[in-house]
Protein 1
Amino acid sequence: MVIYKRVSDLQSFLTPYKEANKKIGFVPTMGALHEGHLSLLKAAKQECDIVVASVFVNPTQFNNPSDLEKYPRMPQKDADLLEQNGCDVMFLPEVEDIYPAQYQTLHLDLSPVDEVMEGKYRPGHFDGVVNVVSRLFDIVQPNKAYFGRKDFQQVAVIRAMTKKLNLGVEIIACDTVREEGGLAMSSRNLRLNEAQKKEALVIYQSLIQAKKMAQENSPTTTLAYLIDALGQSTLELEYAEVVNPETLLPLTDEWIDGATACVVAYCGDVRLIDNMELI
Ligand code: PAF
């Protein structure tokens, strides 16, 4: 595996692959890699000729400064994991490589997918995601890019952005990888102690129960159950929604294919996000 920090070095390396029409797969990450990221890498390796993974903790997508400060950083361990799992190129830029002085911030209207849920509770977050992902796509020029379904709304926003800007990158969403017991893998789980990891299982358990309930109840009733189950737990629920998978707008009376329950809850000061397709 080769590691590049500078945009121009990465691009010089990739040019011959592009000229030879090789398929470039891209796995953007913020590091602190876990099995979820490795599953994206695996999918990219299966479908592409060369795989680039980026590790960049993007400051512009953190609306909470202490979340940015506490975000785990372990570039050496990440490099080892990427190498052991067959990544070809690791891109490890600094903030000034991604956002040089002349960088012009993009402001896209991706409504409604960027407005609801995370859009409401983390103002500015998706602007940051859109800017970093479009900038990374511009640098890497991948054919396919891989994202985890755990961040269900992020995938929808990135799809909408790719379409709006006509970037020609195929967005692949990979299934959420879960720890034993069902907790969705996340770099943030590193900040949970053993007791909190057990408490956090209520998210997966209530989503599973909601999926069962959805067979015989309306979206509204299913959501009420979810809110109640999480409300009674030791977690602090930020929001739960049952949404249309395309628009991400809430469903009330009628189910549609792919209807998905989305949850965000705090376990201590760790913000956990998860979702499950119900129908
Ligand atoms: O999902 C993430 O880790 C980040 O939001 C991403 C897509 C790498 C952009 O910084």
Note: The beta strands are 2-4, 24-29, 50-55, 89-91, 144-148, 170-174, 236-243, 260-267, 270-277.
Protein 2
Amino acid sequence: MMDKLENISLDMSSIMVIFGGTGDLTKRKLMPALYNLALDNLIPENFVVVAIGRRQYSQEAYKKEIYEAIEKYSRNKISDDIWKRLEGMIHYYQLDFLHMEGYGALKEYLQKLDQGYNTKGNRLYYLAVAPEYFETIVSGLQDSGMAVSEGSWSRLVIEKPFGKDLKTASALNKALLKVFPEKSIFRIDHYLGKEMIQNIMVLRFCNSIFESIWNNKFIDNIQITLAEKLGVGTRGGYYEHSGAMRDMIQNHIFQILSLVAMEPPVNLKTDSIRSEKLKVLEAIEDITPEFLKNNVVFGQYGPGFIDGSFVPGYRQELNVPPDSMTETFVAMKLHINNFRWAGTPFYIRTGKRLGKTSAEIVVQFKSLPNILYFKDYEIQEPNLLVLKIQPSVGVFFQFNTRDFSSHNGIVATKMDTSHYSPTQGNTPEAYERLIYDILRGDGTLFSRWDEVEAAWTVADKLIQYRESKKHQFPNYDAGTMGPIRSFELLARDGRKWWHIEN
Ligand code: BG6
């Protein structure tokens, strides 16, 4: 554990400055997370939140909205004591962050708060705004001398999407690095804050029964599914330029893939872990025209039924053109060409308006020869290890035992330690863990630039392919599990997508 602490600054006294203080993310995620951190006594003693917004608000009116948001979205019921404590830390500050002349006054305001609250000049700048504003705000911070200050720390938190391709991501990164050093930039991928994602390393590296067979000799294939019943809702404008590739694959899925496939790091230092994750992305097989033709399936949902209710197709959603060619579904088969994984396929899929909301990683082990316990009507089920991310959280394991009701039969026994937790129940929400880590200066659960770069290098080729082809969209009905070709992708290999019911 000492290794880990080396990364970490233990003085968390600071001002958290949220750009986008009246936005959706602040209300739904950041403020409820701060509330729960306060409840768990994890908020620093000396701490202030400055929420920046364009609108005029009285402090009371702003806090009332935040109270209501916490009431609605917090995993714990709001209690007066804790709210009083948090409320005392929250300050609304009106600023149009596009106007550079306002930054000087903000600086003075923060310095005054420093004196009142003993926050020591430490700053956590959280950009909860649309990505087109990232660079402007960072310039504002730099020009006004707020980005760095002698004897205190400044950290910058960037929400996804980090660029829209390798070129724009590199340009953004260059601009950020002119102002903040790499170790002060926290690129959020909220999946990394989820309990079961953090559990991947523990399951692998603290259980000899798993790690000793975690390779191409024993594993037949690995499947990663992030499926959602939700459609794009009111986010059509954003999604139209993003699609499932940029929204889910380039970040969440590639991060999960890295954790599942990486080598054990030499220690738990942030950079040791990130370097191993990076190697996985670098070992993804070449994305050749042949690969694209055979191994990638794009989809877009048409109208259909979700839980018995009719829902419109993607092209009928708000701010989506009626001839949109944006993908709302991707399935893919890929290989990681290193000694551990060569030959073992990874199947990944994600989509909106699918029949289930479920995120899980299925590890299918190779089957033993069907010689001893075999009748033509009995097929031996493989061993499956399933890491259930949501809505169930936990581990499922399937193995074969004797079926006492038959002569020589076998039956698959299912061991399931997961619990159903649609909002992750009372386990800390991803943002709580992530904000806490930023306050401690621990970047382990955030992506380093070279990881983002490697992910874009692969994603770019897939996106270019999707854009260059005329697809037969829509090609799956809302409420199904995606296009038929996604099933064919595995059937062709004699495999199928697993979905383990609760
Ligand atoms: C976000 C995507 O990053 O992740 C959304 O932009 C998606 O489109 C969401 O719905 C899924 O996250 P979660 O935590 O609800 O699985």
Note: The chain has a mean pLDDT of 93.
